[in-house]
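User: Show me a protein chain along with its predicted structure.
Assistant: Here is one chain, sequence first, then structure tokens.
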Amino acid sequence: MNPLALGYQTLGRAARALPRPLAYATARRLMDAVYLGWPRGGNAARRNAELLLPHVDWIGSASSLARAQFQRYGEYLVDAVRLDELSSADCYAAVGGDDPVWVDQWKQLEELYQRRPILFAVIHFGNWDILGGAYTHRIGPSMVLVEDLGHPALNRAIQDQRSRLGMAPASGRRGLRQIVSHLNDNGTAAILFDRPPRPNERTTTETLFGHRVVLPNEIHRIAESTGAKLVPLAATRQGHDLRFVPHIDLDHRAGVPLLPAFQRAVDAAPDQWYQFRDFFKT
């Protein structure tokens, strides 16, 4: 089962009913149960963690890291099901708002907006919806390529709220065509690119901390065909609250592998990397 759908079924109601700090704490406990009750996902996370440990800032075993990743995913799930409580201004504030540290990056994005297509490359790390809301508040609307989340109610809840925050969801082949057309009109789009390839899908091989990973190459093909500025993007949660540090790589060059651009973020917060399948090709 999709882990997001499993988590939603496990803690969706509690996540919405409780005060946010208590909801985070409850989500961590319940995702502990998911970790223990879903051996396939837990074992895959441990195997991934074993390969990460020599390269990341984590004191503990592969099992402790894998378990922490499930717990952190529970925090993301709380944010996901409560997205309707946030405005785009709230999202912008959550990533530091007008903090002088980020002002140059926001200005560069403002200069690019509607003058050149922008394609954000996003991985399953931290909280990507917060970044989308922050972008629409400071810069303008965007599109996002979305996947089936594995639960009809969750699909409706998440996609409707993304739309409300200015992130127009697009799915499937039709969605890809919409995104390409949007980029050709100098629009902005975001794609979670670190998903498993579909059967017969064209792929590319990249590395994360020197370990091979096979990924779909659709994001590279879209960037090449539209001339989009490809921008790796991530947000690291600070503590156990709605506060994040953005990672916006505006120096990434076309044609260069994407995963290495996320190594610094994953190194600093490996528990916020959510891959519950065998990610590396060993």
